Amino acid sequence: MNIGVLDDNPAILAFLSTTLKLDGHTVTTHSSGLAILEAIFPPTASPQQAQPYDLVVLDLLLPGTMTGADVFFAIRKEFASWQLPVIIITAVSGPTLEQFRYILPDDVPLLRKPFAPRALRHLISELTTK
């Protein structure tokens, strides 16, 4: 699969990229919400020409004005969950995580950092074999 990964931490991007590439996936990493959205929705392409990833893994909290939740909702405006599955990863816990759980759909898979590669593989398998 062609997988887009968004995280502001270079070490996490490297971990995810290595893990996914070892599983045979093509991985493109992004460190900002704007960068991944421009890859999914190229400014010069029409919606019919857009070639989205097969799957997106995105961090919930990002520095700047665009959170991972903002990226998620921008993707969902154009693509249903079966068209472009999204896995959200996060290091937040407690009340902050509960707040995000209220605004995100119940069917969005969420992995808490740190997580084992097998947990990510399991979610990818669940999302792509339906």
TrEMBL record:
Q: Name one GO biological process term.
A: phosphorelay signal transduction system
The name on file for this protein is Response regulatory domain-containing protein
Sorted alphabetically, the keyword list is:
Phosphoprotein
Q: Which InterPro entries match?
A: Bact_response_regulator (IPR050595), CheY-like_superfamily (IPR011006), Sig_transdc_resp-reg_receiver (IPR001789)
Would the keyword Electron transport be found if you checked this record's keyword annotation?
A: no
Q: Which SMART domains match?
A: REC
PTM annotation (4-aspartylphosphate): residues: 59
Transmembrane feature ranges = none
Annotated Response regulatory domain ranges read 2-128
| Pfam families, per the entry | Response_reg (PF00072)
Among Gene3D superfamilies, the record links this protein to:
3.40.50.2300
